[in-house]
Predict the structure.
Amino acid sequence: MKVALGGVQRRGRTVDLRSVDVTASEVAAAVRDPDDDRVCSQRPTAVHEHVGVLDREVSVPVRAALAAAARSRGARTEYDGDLRAVEAELAEVSVASVDLAGARERVAETAEDVERLRERVARVSGRVEARRGVGDADAAAAEEALADANRELAAAETEHHAAQEALERARRRAREARDARERRLSLEDRLANLRRDARRALAERWGERFQRALAALPFADEPTGPDAFEGPNWVAGAAVARLAAPGAPLVVGSSLFSNATRASAALDAPVALVEV
């Protein structure tokens, strides 16, 4: 790796940054960002999110981290085929956004326009009849006004009908969106269950390796399986890190190891040692 942080440059499988004014989170962020040229190294694998930063304050979900470590080494499970199938199906589920409120509002607005124009037609029609009955010379003008009102009413009724059809289409799309949303939730539940089953299978299969990794660490905790482990969480994280192929360097706190070389040897990984 090559590191340029806090005004200093370091390179190698191990770098000691204890004298540099940087935090563990800052270094980890630079490691994980492919566009951050302050740290040039291999790309981190998924397990890096679990054990990429190690110090006495970390909280590591041991089973999930151990499963990610196994995955980083190419481990597979009997659930992987179903996982891929569900992920592919989930990627194809699209939930459309439907503006039912807007469609309903448009129907209500056009209905008001129709009602208003019908009342206007009735009033004008009444005036026409009254003027025709007394031979009023203005009857022709009233008839023209009636014709205009009827044209406006016909246009408003057409617009109202179109708004009703648009609302029905929106309702249909809303039903389809609801079905898609329910399908997506079902698939997400299925995916979560499959991932949980796969993590459990990997953790069980790699339990003995976890014990051996614990035994190889320079700490006093008695080696146990991941589910029975009762020691400090950071020790479990260190054991997982030793098993994993993290790709990118691990960011390790100075409270765990006295120097970067020892940290790298214990964790079997490239290491950036930082002051914590």
Remarks:
- The mean pLDDT is 92.
- The chain has two domains: 2-75+206-274, 91-198.
